[in-house]
Amino acid sequence: MKTNRKKLVICLAIPLAVGGLAALLSGGMDTYQTLNQPPLSPPGWVFPVVWSILYLLMGYASYRILTSGADPDAIRKALTFYFIQLILNFLWPLVFFGLQWYFVAFILLLVLWAFIYLTLYFFGKIDDTAQTLLIPYLLWVTFAGYLNAGVALLN
After folding, report:
1. Which partner for 36 in 13, 30, 93, 154 could form a disulfide, CB atoms 3.0-4.6 Å apart?
2. Model confidence over 108-118: pLDDT tens digits?
3. Taking a C-beta distance cutoff of 8 angstroms, is the pair 58, 90 a contact?
């Protein structure tokens, strides 16, 4: 498969931009330091590092789907779920950090988790590698659900 550099850059940039904008608008790390946190909560510096890696994995996975040459309807369906989960991903820090609605954020995170799972499923119908690239994301959001629930109960 020949690399289309322009599409690759765009696919990598989209989730990075979404995550960066959400972080900028939510003021996340300032709020995080003031919260009562559950056991196993990582230090604040871990989040931007992990999220940057996850956004790059997501972007590359979406690139593989976009350029897979699979049935256009299958690609459209897979990328629709991808963009829905990306929108939910954008909204979560705004609700959690910006509005400090911890229980609502937890519900939103459950919906996000479901859409990530569906994205994994539909990516897997097209490209096994793209599906595999999203597994760390699903695992991290599972861990984030534990953290979110802990914060909701402790604050």
Report:
1. 154
2. 999 999 999 99
3. no
